[in-house]
Write a structure and sequence with these properties.
Structural class: alpha/beta
Order of helices and strands: EHEHHHHEHEHEHEHHEHHHHH
Number of strands: 7
Radius of gyration: 24 Å
Largest sheet: 5 strands, parallel
Oligomer: single chain
Strand order of the largest sheet: 2-5-1-6-7
């Protein structure tokens, strides 16, 4: 089973790829939400860095605990992930963590305090605070164990072993999804737009389609929506966009694993774009059973050149035009 992830820098129109691939009889698209868990700040990159490249007796085991805590606190039995993976996401993730852990023991370090649930964290602070205020002869010793049931972990891995176990994890996890016999499954935002080739190594067969968009449209679009995830003034936006694009290192990707396409080309060069996506993803033109049903390029034209339809952003976009020349689609 081939996995395709559509992604972008932010508000770049990557969902257009999901809509387009819905029109293929050989593909099943999961686009109820964005599947960002694996690329999140405490995701697979974080684990590999701490278990392979930056190993340390404190941070390596802590990274496993943080990964597990993030999973258990953000994903519950009724979450999208559990439904998508047939109620196996948490259990498969726990198995994966156990496979990477070389030693699980009763104990804790000072950083483990930050992973405690709020009530337990408050109780810990209360007890230690009271102890400091007691007369010295009544105080508990500095070595007193306030968390006698807390578990700690030790971990170390070679690159080869980490990738082997991570692929086994993702293979097993994705085997639980109901793909209706389709050869291709599509997930929105499964992979990041930066270091995409490195991320693909965590899966047996993952392809990433990165969608770019004229930065002026990204800015205007988010200003209209009053979104809080990107800068709202043009000067900060330019700095942010340059940072994101420089970090993406798009020219360093493996072209057999990662494809870059412009949102505008999907609209104004529709036929050529479809051929490129089909060749990259191994899709047959015969499987394009309902063209333009979910992605209609004529309808999507209204999502381009917002600075014309929203003149109140004219001055902001003039600054963006001047400072992001190399990233503009419409020159």
């Amino acid at each position: 089973m081939k996995i395709i992830s559509n992604t972008g820098v932010y508000a770049s129109g990557s969902s257009a790829v999901s809509d387009l691939l819905k029109e293929y009889s050989s593909a099943k698209v999961f686009d109820d939400d964005e599947y960002q868990f694996f690329q999140c700040p405490f995701g697979l990159f974080y684990l590999e860095d701490n278990l392979v490249y930056s190993t340390h007796r404190g941070n390596s085991g802590f990274s496993l605990k943080l990964f597990k805590t993030f999973c258990h606190r953000t994903i519950n039995k009724r979450s999208l992930y559990e439904k998508t993976f047939n109620h196996s996401f948490i259990s498969e993730t726990d198995k994966y963590i156990n496979s990477l852990c070389t030693c699980d023991y009763i104990g804790w370090g000072y950083v483990d305090y930050w992973l405690l649930p709020p009530v337990q964290k408050y109780w810990f602070k209360f007890r230690t605070g009271i102890n400091r205020r007691l007369p010295r002869f009544l105080q508990k010793p500095a070595t007193f164990d306030y968390l006698p049931k807390e578990h700690d972990m030790a971990a170390f891995s070679t690159k080869e072993d980490f990738l082997l176990k991570t692929r086994a994890y993702t293979d097993s996890l994705f085997s639980h999804i109901n793909c209706d016999g389709k050869k291709v499954v599509v997930f929105d935002q499964l992979s990041p737009s930066s270091n995409s080739t490195r991320f693909s190594h965590y899966f047996s067969d993952l392809l990433t389609i990165i969608v770019l968009r004229d930065p002026r449209d990204i800015f205007c679009d988010q200003m209209v929506l009053n979104d809080h995830c990107i800068p709202r003034d043009p000067h900060s936006f330019v700095s942010w966009y340059k940072t994101v694009m420089n970090a993406s290192k798009l020219d360093q990707n493996d072209p057999t694993k990662v494809m870059v396409i412009n949102f505008e080309d999907l609209i104004f060069n529709y036929d050529d774009s479809i051929k490129k996506i089909e060749n990259f993803a191994g899709l047959s033109p015969k499987d394009h059973c309902c063209p333009r049903k979910y992605f209609n390029p004529q309808f999507s034209q209204k999502n381009t050149q917002f600075w014309i339809s929203h003149p109140k952003f004219k001055k902001d976009c003039e600054y963006i035009t001047e400072n992001l020349q190399s990233y503009l689609y419409f020159k």
